[in-house]
Write a structure and sequence with these properties.
Elements lengths: L1 H24 L1 H28 L17 H24 L2 H12 L3 H14 L4 H26 L5 H12 L1
Helix pairs in contact: 1-2, 1-5, 1-6, 1-7, 2-6, 2-7, 3-4, 3-5, 4-6, 5-6, 6-7
Amino acid sequence: SVYGAGIVLASSVMLVRVFILTSIFAFSVARNLILPLFLMLLGSLIPAILIWRKKEEKAQTGALDAGNPLDIKNALFFGSLYIATTLLMYYSRQWLNPSMVYVTAAVTGVADIDAITLSTAKWAAQDQTQQVLAQRVILVAILSNSIFKLLVSLLRGTPALRPSTLQGFGLVLG
């Protein structure tokens, strides 16, 4: 399904965004994330391009309700989500052991990659001894977010949507 390829392609933008954010705040972390992020990006782009080239189905037309982009409730919700994620990541690094930091990254990664990336990159820039942990935390958050998107696509999507999203996300997660 072309829509499945579109979902995977839209999700791959997250990988570029993570690289840009880590480059700005902690270039040494970004440098070490280049290979895994590049491989995940390739893993999502290749199936999307192949599916797009096939276009075996006619595009389905229908009105999509995009909602109001200036809705203050959405802005407040995502602002609150960003603050909550940043605080959770901060306090998990302060009070919990590294394995629990990974759990926190996996749980909060479902909702907000940018907050985890920003807080972890800033933290790693201040504490050079935590570069490897920072890289892993960011990757765990990316994987958890990708698994969530795959599950939503599989469980809520149409049967025609499932193979293409499974191909694209399967390569990213594999």
